[in-house]
Task: inverse folding
């Protein structure tokens, strides 16, 4: 009797399937939210450098070497935060601080997390190329049907709304 119940439970658990991941093409992120996310990430990095510069200027006067150290320290911290935010966190979770704050997520075009390599490619190769085209690389998001930018095309990613947050 117990063997029959166990077999029935096993068959029932085999029938229950996990819900399939939603197709990423069906929920592209709006251009305005993408701009907001980039702005938040930019403000974070510029804020670190600005704060360290302020500290350096307050040390001023005869502490010129201390001021230069504070500025250098701020730049180093900003580079580390940029690598963590745009490379590591984005690669592992699909989120940057700006994307998290705006309810967006970076995913591979085929679905799933982008991975650290693709996140680094997207942010440290694709972003500069989008800037070098005088911003036209970013403007592709407003013009394309799937909302993909030049850096999305390079890294084979897409930015989507994260679980219907908005």
Result:
């Amino acid at each position: 009797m117990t063997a029959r119940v166990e077999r029935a439970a096993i068959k029932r658990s085999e029938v229950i399937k996990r819900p399939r991941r939603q197709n990423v093409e069906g929920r592209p992120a709006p251009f305005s939210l993408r701009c907001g996310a980039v702005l938040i990430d930019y403000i974070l990095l510029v804020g670190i450098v600005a704060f360290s510069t302020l500290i350096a200027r307050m040390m001023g006067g005869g502490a010129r070497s201390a001021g230069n150290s504070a500025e250098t320290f701020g730049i180093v911290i900003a580079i580390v935060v940029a690598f963590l935010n745009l490379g590591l966190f984005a690669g592992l979770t699909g989120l940057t601080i700006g994307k998290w704050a705006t309810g967006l997520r970076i995913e591979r075009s085929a679905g799933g997390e982008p991975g650290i390599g693709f996140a680094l490619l997207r942010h440290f190769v694709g972003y500069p190329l989008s800037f070098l085209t005088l911003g036209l690389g970013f403007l592709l998001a407003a013009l394309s049907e799937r909302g993909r930018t030049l850096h999305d095309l390079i890294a084979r990613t897409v930015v989507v709304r994260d679980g219907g947050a908005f």
